[in-house]
Amino acid sequence: MNGKMRAVARAYSNIALIKYWGKRDANLNLPAVGSISMTLAKLETISEVRFREDLSQDLVIINGRKAEPSEADRVSRFLNVVRARAGLKFYADVSSRNNFPTGAGLASSASAFASLALAGSHAAGLHLNATELSILARQGSGSAARSIFGGFVEMKVGHKKDGSDCYAVQLKDERYWDVCLLIAITSEKKKEIGSTYGMEHTARTSPYYNQWVRKHPLAIEEMRQAIEEKNFTKLGELSEASCLQMHALALSSTPGIIYWNAATLECIHTIKELRQHGCEVYFTIDAGPQVKAICLSPEIEKVKIALENTAGVLRVISSELGAGATILESNP
Ligand code: DP6
User: Fold this and answer.
1) How far is the CA of 54 from the centre of ligand 1 (A)?
2) pTM exceeding 0.85
3) Sign (positive/negative) of CA torsion 144, 132, 149, 199?
4) d(CA 254, CA 231)
5) Which of 158, 213, 194 is CA-nearest to residue 30?
């Protein structure tokens, strides 16, 4: 059996247009709100998992280096879920590689845990369908549940206590619409406050948290409609509103969390100016200082040049919609 329990999988990252922020159950990692995202073709994680009889602990390598204890621990806890489900006792050799900066608000946990869910379950001999994979990936990271699918994806908030109705579904595949995303990198540093802690802190201390949770279903409904109608203006306006509300929550917690730097704000102004001059582009920002610009493909070059010329921007990555997670190699 040794040497055969191996699989390699690829998953693309995703960016939420309607944000997930807050959990209703931290142990099962159940979100307090649904979310809608775009999967991105240019940001990928490739993970290899090999279960081995001869290991006395999991060995986790991220981007060619031994993972930090907290990261290795998170991967091991995730593999425990896979092991429990497969009735497997062996530890694993895990190697994960991103083609983009890790932990800087570029949703590395999304592609990381989606690729781990797929590679890990295959290597363990489990044959899960897409819904089961999404539920599994969610237990590693909420946003990872969405990266199982390509195109536009909705994460269902679910209502059941065991999380069995809390998974992502594809709204439209990657060929549906030429919506693109440009990421203005304003810092290559690892973010100081991860989303898991940021959410928990916000839920505990922001006076606006309950209102966010209550109003959220409407934002989901409106975004679903904007995508269905291919109404780009509506998609953009809803994205900016959800982003600003999420950051307003973080700012209103005690002590307040500020994910932005000076260049983040500069980019917001660049995007608003472009819009005033007839170039339709909108922004969204996650738990870090990078700014993501959303536009249709004919506008990419103009937006790229404007962001590259914005003070504090280090580089710009652009991406069209990407596909769902796939197995690259497996030895069943
Ligand atoms: C701001 O999925 O990283 O990117 O479930 O604790 O791993 P955990 O959180 P994570 O949070 C993502 C937060 C966000 C918004 C989003 O992607 O919906």
Assistant:
1) 35
2) yes
3) negative
4) 37
5) 158
